[in-house]
Records
---
Amino acid sequence: MKKESLLGADSADLERKFAQIGLTKLDAKRVLPWIHVKCVSSFDLMTDMPHKIRLLLPEYFSLERPLCRNLQKSSDGTLKALLEFPDGHQIETVFIPDEKRNTVCLSTQVGCAMGCKFCNTGRQSFVRNLSCAEIMAQVFFWKDMLPMLKELSHPHLSNLVFMGMGEPLLNAENLFQALELLLDTKKHNFSRNKITVSTSGIATNDLQQMAKFGIKLAISLHTANDAKRSELMPINGKYNIDALLNAAQEYLKRSNTEHVTFEYLLLAGINDSDADARQLAKLLSGIRCKVNLIIFNSWSGSTFSGSSRMRADAFLSLLLAKGIRTVIRKSRGSDISAACGQLKGAGEFIAPRIS
Ligand code: SF4
């Protein structure tokens, strides 16, 4: 019998599942913190639960983490894990340690249907959505790893970004269930301003539904020009820049967040001229926003190259001069293909190592 993972279970789920095997609501209430606060990986460790329940639970349910097929460490300390789910499908997730925070980048789909031209994941076809339990499993995986990462300046996860493989808003139901668990003060207790969901430009009702969580929104914009954007990101044919900016303004209103972040990959000779910067400044003027400039990280087979640092600085100066809050985001983990747009979700087997 296939055991059901409890990694994505909330109170109502657990009560329903427990009732089916003759356990009570009180049993569910006592087990829930073991899953989402103490984050144990075995029912045996639930020491205040009666022995017979600890024996019964593993007959039906599992707290198993996905198999780590490969763990790589970048020269800057960034870690990338290739995780495999019981059906054999694989995704990548990234841990980015910093002096002030530890950030985890999460995937929401196996493969991706969006086909952004600059993205390595976009070359893979879409396979399937991750379940809530599979999204949460990435958080559990990194929480389990923390005690082994001795060099960290603080031993906890502080920030989560949904910027890994897949388009989060095309898996909105499972994403929202995971957000409930992550934000719940009696469960994972992440702060709402420490969670960011990034979209390639899905300006649907799901985006506005997400506003109820009050989390940060990042939009992959990459150019202020509709024709260029449609070339780079086919989704622009459905939701053009105007539609996207209207949706961003509406999200700001509904979510009461301070600003929306626009991600802008600097691609040499494509979107990095002074004219591109001026067009972007004009487009974003009056919107509560921040622009993250990211110098494109090349990957094998990519036809694009990243802008020079000098070009990036000139682009930055132009935006700042026009009053647009802008930074050049430090790229992390590019030597292990863990940086933005480099995740692929398939690799040769290398035994996990953290040294
Ligand atoms: S950038 Fe994001 S949305 Fe676009 S193809 Fe890559 S993973 Fe998909």
---
Amino acid sequence: MKSIVTGGAGFLGSHLCDYLLEKGHEVICVDNLITGTTKNIEHLNSDRFTYIRHDVTKPIYFGDKIDYIFHLASPASPIDYLELPIQTLKVGALGTYNLLGLAKEQGARFLLASTSEVYGDPLVNPQPETYWGNVNPIGPRGVYDEAKRYAEAITMAYHRYHGIDTRIVRIFNTYGPRMRVNDGRVVPNFIMQALSGEDITVYGDGSQTRSFCYVSDLIEGIYRLMMSDFTDPVNIGNPAEMSVLEFAKVIIEITGSKSKIVYENLPVDDPKVRRPDISKAKELLGWEPKVELREGLSKTIEYFNDFGLLQQQ
Ligand SMILES: NC(=O)c1ccc[n+]([C@@H]2O[C@H](COP(=O)([O-])OP(=O)(O)OC[C@H]3O[C@@H](n4cnc5c(N)ncnc54)[C@H](O)[C@@H]3O)[C@@H](O)[C@H]2O)c1
């Protein structure tokens, strides 16, 4: 089995490369390192692993037969996509188009890493896959949300009109080792602030909710979906919802930090609630998250303790 992982040098992509190699796949990681780093894949010295530096908004061809394409390439954290708005739109549009073209040429199965952000600032909670979302297309976050919505639309079009075997995973907030310490997402932000004794910055009053999935659970869900025969989008995430303020308190407790909580303005169009309805994943994939928040956080904190602070210097 030969698999391509675009965005394979990023946080999730590198864990997926690890997982596929363990499953016996030959893995080709394609990444332009715009937000990723080869540090995430330098431990992969298997002769079944290849890394190609390439921007997937430009076409790519392979002589050998490819069986599976996991398309994860895209800036993913708000700091990244707000700094890289055009690249984010291009990778969602042209990148997805190019990889679907490759899937068509190769007869490969294609999986799109979509996001809970397609639901925008949702008016229903939890969010089932049938919910169409509440996205501001012209707000600053629209570059990411709409890129992914377009990517879903073109994936379904290739499925319907060209008969390509496709999968769409809607990923909810995921955390774990190899997140960048300064990528601006709430988990690394709070952990780094707590570890360095700085104030913990909560946006708004902290009543907005999130649900956090540990990376190993997510990767298992992605793999099961790819190997299933289900074409419609499937939510993969942890339904254990908590407020951002509660989450800050958990981080302070686990790290034993003396940090204080301070409040700043909410970013524009920040979702007020976020919780996956995972009934479909349970029923179709027999999947549900296994790693408890405190266990996952301890592993992540250990990683940041070992590597994070050094990396930042
Ligand atoms: N981590 C999450 O909580 C989360 C939630 C929802 C969706 N996702 C999706 O999962 C995927 C991976 O996210 P992540 O958290 O690992 O982010 P990440 O930034 O760590 O990884 C993204 C990778 O894609 C690469 N990339 C970006 N544009 C590229 C291009 N044009 N050509 C080649 N490579 C390119 C980057 O260099 C990076 O290595 C993304 O598609 C993201 O939208 C992630």
---
Amino acid sequence: MSAIELLSDLQCNGMKWEGEVGLSRKGGAGPSDHKAMTLDGQTLMIPVLNLASQDSPYTGKTDPLTGKVIVSKNQIPVATLSAPARPKFYDLVTADGIPYDQIATLHSHDVLATTVLQHCIRMNGKTTACQFCSIDQSLKSGRALIRKRPDQLAEVAKAAVELDGVTQMVLTTGTPNTPDRGAEILYDSVKAIRAQVDLPIQVQCEPPNDFAWFQKLKDAGAVSIGMHLEAVSDRVRQQIMPGKAEVSLDVYFAAFDAAVKVFGRGQVSTYILAGLGDTQQEIIEMTENLAKRGVYPFVVPFVPIQGTALEHHPKPDPAFMQSLYTQIGSQLRQYGLNSQDTQAGCAKCGACSSLKAYE
Ligand code: SF4
């Protein structure tokens, strides 16, 4: 099995951890319950904290002598991985006493990421919430602020660049009850960060009502934007994310086209969670449509996050993911998209998916 096949298998199955997990990510927007691990220069986020990883054939533990991660499959050692060290900026606090790691966290090994508004209009209603999302968990546990101020983000970003060499930043947001869908919060944040530090930033939000926000965000200093479909068929959208499904696919496509005009081909991306119920054909048709428009389809294996409505949902089959990666990789080549050309964001980071290796 090649390094990327092993990482891909680990990402679908997760890993049962023995001992202290150490640096990891629990709750929050987007994929969670995982730990960054590196093999042959490729860093992937591997689920270790959710229920689904507890019945994985893989186990992991830290070797006390080397600090490396020893991975076994059915009790037989199969690989030795490394895990990024705890970043130095995690030890700092703001002048008003807020730990930096409650403001932003390290993703993969060199990405600074945060959810600027840790609240969403849809999160408290059974008929509106996205069933896969754990945006409220880190808030309830006291690990994150509900709203990160622009000056706080700028302070942490500067420290993360200077102390830990982060190379890019991802700013996502829960959706507020305003027509801009969070674009204004992101705009204020990007402006403040870029005034302090030269760091490529991707912003992520739902399509705003007024597409003029794309130019404003770019002028503020954002270099790329993500607007996340999550599921691709109306059937799965209605079932898994009934509130967000009210924003039609047509609205997303209009927003993608407008954003590509501003940010350029490959600087607009979308997250697709494979394993929620969309068929392979549905996903492939959608990724073809997106790639043709210049939108990078960042397809990731769905991680059933503990504490969400989908915590017992089956994990995606690694063979299903590899077949998707192969076909999407060829679409990306056909339409001239490549994560290396993306200036910032999840596609560039690539740690939540093995897609990069198939481009
Ligand atoms: S792909 Fe995106 S969500 Fe995943 S680790 Fe990288 S920055 Fe974070």
---
Amino acid sequence: MPNYKLTYFNIRGRGELIRYLFAYMDTAYEDIRITFSDWPAIKSSIPYGKLPILEIDGEVFHQSLAIGRYLAREAGLAGKSNLDQARIDGILDSIDDFLLVFPWRDADETKQKQRQEEYLANFAPELLSNLEKCLGDKLWFVGNSVTLADLFWDICSDTLEVYKPGFAQNYPKLLSVKDKVKSIPAIAAWIKKRPQTRE
Ligand SMILES: N[C@@H](CCC(=O)N[C@@H](CS)C(=O)NCC(=O)O)C(=O)O
């Protein structure tokens, strides 16, 4: 088995998909969590200057979704057909588009909170209703078993819930996907033992 070393911050954020996948596969890895104060000194040594990175037998891989797709293929969670892979990618990229434009930080904290609330009020309903439409009456987003899309939805919606409690409360089918992901024994065990962080 390859030697895996994940480097990220001590948050769930963009590292959590990778951690979920390792938990799901019951695969050993080093979960290195660097502090924000140490980051400026480390940044220039990291290709592309962003985290997470995953070292696989010493080779550095970057971009959380590229790493997530690779691990999902190893785990059998990447879709059973080429078309299913495209369906999964559509969901990942739609959620990612939403997160990329989210106003995470603003020098002025009051303004930051206001911009986040406005963004969620204006744009979350469209994302959520599109996701619910895509789910339809199925139990999982794609096919008839859990895939990378369900894991990513669960993780990202947990984060958005921190910024807007009840973020997806009007979308019971989407919430039921989260319940099912969190009931997978390996994921439930990981959630129980992982470091508790705000996001
Ligand atoms: N698309 C990239 C985004 C990576 C990214 O922006 N990482 C942030 C943390 S979530 C980071 O490294 N920030 C520190 C910096 O840019 O200096 C991915 O998904 O891996």
